[in-house]
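Thread: quick sanity check before group meeting

JM: Hey all, I'm pulling together slides for Thursday and realized we never actually wrote out the predicted structure for the chain we discussed last week. Dropping the sequence here so it's in one place. If anyone has concerns about the input, flag it before I start.
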Amino acid sequence: MSDASTTPEALLAWRHDLERALPAANIPTLLMVLVHLTGDLDWLSETYQCSRIRGLDENDSGGLPEAVQARVRAAALEAILAWKAGAPLPCQPPTRRFSWTCCISPWTNRSRQATDR
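JM (edit): ok, ran it. Output follows.
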């Protein structure tokens, strides 16, 4: 018996819902989703570095230009669809660059210092 959520009609409806939701998605969150789903640390590069928020702003745009936001949304659509289709997640141990970029100091656990290189 087929699961109702995996029928072609259900998957098409799911994709349509995702396409409708992405224009309102928070760009900084999508960038972290892209790093997680693709393992590509280029999403943490200066090109995609978000501005700091002031006050209680949600910073949905990340302060990034519209063209960059569109690129992030398009890449997120493809990565999420690939995940939904069963693509494996990258299983790489965090590197120093990843740890530092995510505001976790690689020096907090000195016993791992030699293995993080």
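AS: nice. Confidence is low (pLDDT under 50) at residues 105-117. DSSP finds four helices and no strands in the chain.
JM: adding both to the slides.
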